[in-house]
Every structure is written in C-alpha cells, then in structure tokens.
Design brief:
By secondary structure, this protein is mainly alpha-helical. The protein is built from seven helices and no strands. The longest helix is centred in the N-terminal third of the chain and has 15 residues.
Length: 138
C-alpha cells in the first residue's frame, strides 16, 4: 500500500467515518468489518475509544488533498467491500460515488471495479491499483 503522508487528525477521523458509513450501508457492522476498520484506525493512530465513538457519531467529510491518499482510501474501501465476498450492485454504486466524490477518475474507478473479479478474493494488488490510477492521472 502507498505510504500515507502526514494527515491531520480531522482528515483521519473523516476517512474512518466515511469507511464506517460505507460498511453500515446494510444497516449493520459485521465483526469482520469492525475488526478491519479498527486495524485501519490503529494504523492511523486513532484510539479505540475515538473509533468506537465515530461509529455512532460520524464526522463531516474532509476532502483529502493528496491524490495518493485518495487512492489509498479508495483501495481501503474496495477491501472493505469485499470482506464478506458478497458484493451487491448497491455497494458498487456507492463505492463508485465515493471514488468520484474523492476526485478520482471515472475511468479508473470503473477499471478497478471491473478487474477486481479477476483477482483472488477480489483483492486488487496495491501496485496494480496504483498503475490504473497513474494512467488516468498522467
């Protein structure tokens, strides 16, 4: 995965809040999703107390400035979406919209979502994902 540059606390809480909202789109947060999200929170230096608070009290969306941070966040969302190996059309639309809101290329988002089925467990390798976005970014 790409190294995450220095994000401020508000940006970290915002991206976690966004991921929690994505995971809760089916009105529940499965334990596998909770554990995955909590591991992201730990990587970002967010305490368990703050993470648990975010589940019930989302924060306002903050647009990530760095293109690489947005790619990393999109990759996290793809991983989160595929945790239970059941991807609905509703989730695909939602993740596509999240990607667009982050300012990612429509073509790159579609390419990632189209190609994820060709990888084991639908996990697009980070280097492959980066290459997809590099092509569109240049």
């Amino acid at each position: 995965m790409l190294p995450v540059t220095m994000m401020n606390r508000q940006e970290k809480l915002s991206l976690l809040s966004e991921m929690i909202a994505f995971a809760q789109s089916d009105d529940s947060l499965k334990s596998i999703e909770y554990n995955f999200l909590y591991s992201i929170a730990k990587q970002l230096g967010i305490s368990k107390e703050d993470f648990d608070y975010l589940i019930e009290h989302p924060v306002t969306y903050v647009h990530l400035k760095s293109h690489s941070e947005r790619i990393v966040q999109f990759h996290r969302l793809v991983l989160l979406m595929n945790l239970d190996h059941k991807v609905s059309s509703k989730q695909l639309v939602k993740i596509h919209n999240f990607g667009l809101r982050m300012g990612l290329s429509h073509e790159s988002i579609n390419r990632v979502l189209d190609l994820m089925d060709s990888f084991p467990n639908k996990i697009v390798p980070p280097d492959f994902l980066i290459d997809i976005f590099k092509v569109q970014y240049n």
